[in-house]
Amino acid sequence: MSEQPTEPDLRPPADDAEAAQLLREGVIDLEGRMLDASNVTLVGAIRTGDLAAECIYKPVAGERPLWDFPDGTLAGREISAFLVSEATGWQVVPPTVLREGPFGPGMVQLWMDGDPEVDLAAFVRRDDPALRRMAVFDAVVNNADRKGGHIIPMPGGHVYGVDHGICFSVDPKLRTLLWRWAGKQLPAEAVEMLERLADDLRADLGEQLHEHLTRAEVRCTQRRVADLLRTGRHPEPNGEWPALPWPPF
Length: 249
Ligand SMILES: Nc1ncnc2c1ncn2[C@@H]1O[C@H](COP(=O)(O)OP(=O)(O)O)[C@@H](O)[C@H]1O
Ligand SMILES: [Mg+2]
Known about the structure:
With 249 residues, the protein is α+β, with helices and mostly antiparallel strands. The protein contains seven helices and seven strands; from the N terminus they run H-E-E-E-H-E-E-H-H-E-E-H-H-H.
């Protein structure tokens, strides 16, 4: 009697180490393309022997050139944002890797199912500590695109940020919905984090970022951290660059 092949039990990754393993080694089965995206953004399933999840895959080959981000790749900027996020200890960015995919090298990121109960338009206006951390993170990476759809509130209160393809410009380009704390004193946890980050940027993190960003972009990241520590305050709109993303959601 022939036996039906049994599917091994697949489970979602239990921690960051498993997530990284799944993202690096998993087989990607593409399921669809985000149609409103300006670059090629694909969604799919990713699985190894025992782990499975949904992921987002942005092949470098699908990137539309941007005049104000001429160097490197958008995928490299996404990885850089993940590396900075990991260094903060705040896990703003979901696990992300750079790897070979069905359409060549690209960034692969774990898909995070946000809390469907949250009204995003109201949520982004809240004085929420996770959003405030995201605002500090965005100031560090110089995020030019923190719109509502790039903020994912999770069940349980954690908040993820996605779409970091246009971060790390050498020019001030912070464009975000999260201006509620502009000019306010940074919380103690942010100052502690920035002090650690300043050290990391002079050491391993700086070296890792150099693989994806120009020397000038890494230097400017160090400078933004130093400026935040010097002023001790959340940045304010500089008046030269549109401070709000359009469309906002
Ligand atoms: N890791 C993720 N988990 C959950 N949703 C995501 C993730 N990445 C992107 N999304 C959703 O998909 C949309 C499109 O992805 P995004 O990264 O913004 O692509 P694009 O660069 O094409 O704008 C986002 O606005 C967000 O709603
Ligand atoms: Mg987007």
